[in-house]
Amino acid sequence: MSLADEVGVAAACRALRMPRSALYRDRAARHVCQLPAPVAALRRRPPLALSEHEQRVVLDVLNSPRFVNCAPAAIYAQLLDEGSYIASVRTMYRLLQGCAAVRERRNQLRHPEYAKPELLAVTPNQVWSWDITKLKGPVRGTCFHLYVILDIFSRYVVGWMVAEKESAELAEQLIADSAMKENI
């Protein structure tokens, strides 16, 4: 019995710190495309239709390690450049659709999971956060800069300042003044 059977797929993936999409992608990669079972034909088979052996050859080429990440149109063009013709692009799509393999075939980028930064304060003045916001001025095209420092524990505004420009020196002075005012 697997972990996913006991706690569910989402919880198991969270516990293993693995995205669910990777699990499903891995499961799909293990599934080898098989020809569908022959269905009793109600109409006559077209004379130029591929035989089952030819269909298997085309599917083997489409699922080969060389072409597994390529679109059928790219495979077709590459094989033509090499002087080989196995089937039309439409036939390749039709065969892939017959075994439910019409999907994105290229490797997809996997974005790493980043831990969200978490700041935890249990007493006042333990952690401060600050920001600079632009405020519209009285004349079009002008603005003022509002510097604000907040105490994360109490959300108390520890210090603030409005200035005509944004500069590191002003921010440094505000932080120093606020720390002195709070006896830090």
Provide the descriptors you would attach to this structure in a database record.
single chain, 184 residues, alpha+beta, 3 domains, three-stranded antiparallel sheet, 3 strands
Q: Nutshell version of this structure?
A:
With 184 residues, this protein is of the alpha+beta class. A three-stranded antiparallel β-sheet has the order 1-2-3, with helices on one face. The longest helix has 14 residues.
Radius of gyration: 31 Å
Mean pLDDT: 86
Give the N-terminus to C-terminus distance in angstroms.
57 Å
Question: Strand tally, please?
Answer: 3
pLDDT < 50 runs, ≥5 residues: none
Structure description:
By secondary structure, the protein is an alpha+beta fold. It folds into 3 domains: 1-30, no CATH class; 48-108; 128-181, no CATH class. 37% of the residues lie in helices and 14% in strands. It has 7 helices and 3 strands, in the order H-H-H-H-H-H-E-E-E-H. Strands 1-2-3 form a 3-stranded antiparallel beta sheet, covered by helices on one side. A hairpin with a 5-residue loop joins strand 2 (143-151) and strand 3. Helix 5 packs across helix 6. It is elongated and about 90 Å long. The mean pLDDT is 86.
What's the SSE blueprint?
Blueprint: H1 3-7, H2 9-15, H3 20-30, H4 52-62, H5 72-81, H6 89-98, E1 128-136, E2 143-151, E3 157-163, H7 168-181
Antiparallel strand pairs: 1-2, 2-3
Helix pairs in contact: 5-6
